[in-house]
Automatic annotation (TrEMBL):
Residues 440-474 form the Galactose oxidase-like Early set domain. Gene3D superfamilies: Galactose oxidase/kelch, beta-propeller, Immunoglobulins. This is 17557_t:CDS:1. Keywords: Signal. Pfam families: Glyoxal_oxid_N, GO-like_E_set. The keyword Thylakoid does not apply. The keyword tRNA processing does not apply. InterPro entries: Gal_Oxase/kelch_b-propeller, Gal_Oxidase_central_sf, Glyoxal_oxidase_N, GO-like_E_set, Ig-like_fold, Ig_E-set.
Length: 476
């Protein structure tokens, strides 16, 4: 038995945790199910805390099927119980924005693109969404804007719950350059008089450095990667703590976009980072998706990249941690670069990466999807023609652990609020064959914010490799 704290990544494919009928093939490769329509082409998706809903965010274009009072809008709330949508207000152009949770559970979306279709520009806007379960919540503008215009920035939560906002450009572009590069970061909420802080790393990593990969490490420092360069950065001292070796083989950031994840921590708190996909640019239309994943322990005494080969090359993949601690890698294409209709040959087959398996046996192919676009739309207006029409279908992916024939454990009682280091009780029902057991556990919460920043989490039980339906908990 293990207990996991985890948060959902902004991926447009969702994961059921429910009892499934025994299905021999699905028990090996998982299962896709079409469940509904999104109304918007979902560029970003984030789970709304303490609800069973997802917030979708689209760019401002002619691609929406949703209106408010007759005016197009580009964000919706999707109900996972009913598969129905509720239109949300569009405040400014959210194209190429970024998002995060705040420590009080508020969803934050920031940055964006130029004014479009009667909507304000979003380059330095901050939008806030306070989750609700009664259909009344909506996007609101923060009274304060960002200190810099940011198209394609990255947001990562720090140990104290504040947000680290890094990079971007001052306008949209096929590739970044010195004229538009935003070589700085800022902290949100900012202290009075605080401005953007220059970071030479964002100059040295040009041109493929938009949406840099950033992960909070258990000692409170940040792993930052852009293009093929990587560092460990100390936000308190504003100094680079470690210059890591260059990432081998390929560029890993926009427009040669890869994906990254911090691997689940164990009691040793030895953080490892996994970076997969990307590309080496020959020309925008001839770039081949990178086959490799690169893995590193950035705070070790001798950090070195370990290279592993995926079954498929991928540009623009997505990665998310599943409830059993494995990593799902999905979406993306084999050829081309991000944006501007340059991607082709979509990769429909996801793979699961098991970080604890021996090297050479960590990847398992899953059941292919039939839908080639997830979280992307190459069209300026709805297009039903090929090769890649505007896509509003929503599908769920159920991992193999839901098809074992054994009912998942069921959490009966868990705390809604936790303090760091606090011990807590959790009660759940588990199944071993046909035998039903009630289990009571006494566990410690994470020791501090560098291990798990304050805010909303999904608390889960993993029993014999099978997860329960998670319970929401606020950690502070």
């Amino acid at each position: 038995m293990k207990i996991w704290f985890y948060a959902y990544a902004s991926v447009v494919t969702f994961f059921w945790v429910a009892t499934k009928l025994v299905n021999c093939q699905a028990a090996i490769t998982g299962q896709w199910d079409f469940v509904g329509h999104s109304g918007v082409s979902s560029m970003h998706a984030i789970l709304s805390p303490n609800t069973n809903k997802i917030v979708f965010i689209e760019r401002v274009e002619l691609t929406t099927n949703v209106t408010i009072n007759g005016k197009p809008t580009y964000s919706v709330e999707y109900n996972l119980d009913t598969n129905e949508i509720r239109a949300l207000t569009t405040l400014s152009n959210t194209f190429c924005s970024a998002g995060s949770y705040m420590k009080n559970g508020t969803i934050l979306n920031l940055g964006g693109a130029e004014a479009q279709k009667g909507f304000a520009e979003g380059f330095n806007r901050v939008r806030l969404y306070n989750p609700c379960d009664d259909g009344t919540c909506d996007w609101q503008n923060d009274v304060n804007n960002l200190n810099a215009k940011r198209w394609y920035p990255t947001v990562e939560q720090l140990a104290d719950g504040s947000l680290f906002i890094i990079g971007g450009s001052t306008q949209g572009a096929a590739v970044n350059n010195a004229t538009i590069n935003v070589a700085s970061y800022e902290i949100y909420p900012s202290a009075p008089g605080e401005t953007s802080i220059p970071l030479q790393f964002l100059v040295d990593s040009l041109p493929n450095n938009l949406y840099p990969c950033v992960h909070l490490l258990p000692d409170g420092t940040l792993f930052i990667m852009a293009n093929q360069k990587a560092i460990v950065y100390d936000v308190i001292s504003r100094q680079i703590k470690t210059n890591l070796p260059d990432v081998p083989r390929a560029a890993r950031n926009y427009p040669l976009t890869g994906a990254s994840s911090i691997l689940p921590l164990d009691s040793s708190n030895n953080a490892e980072i996994l970076v997969c996909g990307g590309g080496n640019q020959i020309s925008p239309s001839k770039t081949v998706g990178e086959f490799s994943c690169a893995r590193i322990s950035p705070t070790s005494s001798n950090p070195t990249w370990e290279i592993e080969e995926m079954p498929f090359g991928r540009t623009m993949p997505d990665m998310t941690i599943l409830a059993d601690g494995t990593i799902l890698i999905l979406n993306g294409c084999n050829n081309g670069t991000a944006g501007f209709n340059k991607g082709s040959d979509p990769v429909l087959t996801p793979v699961i990466y098991n970080p604890k398996a021996p090297a050479g046996s960590r990847f398992t192919k899953m059941q292919p999807s039939y839908i080639p676009l997830s979280g992307s739309n190459p069209n300026n207006k709805p297009n039903v023609d090929g090769p890649y029409p505007t896509e509003f279908r929503v599908e769920t992916f159920s991992p193999p652990y839901l098809f074992t024939g054994v009912p998942p454990p069921k959490i009966q009682q868990a705390p809604k609020d936790l303090k760091y280091g606090q011990s807590f009780d959790i009660n759940y029902v588990a199944y071993s064959g046909t035998r039903k057991m009630t289990v009571n556990l006494h566990q410690p919460a994470p020791a501090g914010g560098a291990i798990a920043p304050p805010g909303p989490y999904l608390l889960n039980i993993l029993d014999n490799g099978i997860p329960a339906k998670a319970a929401w908990v606020m950690l502070s």
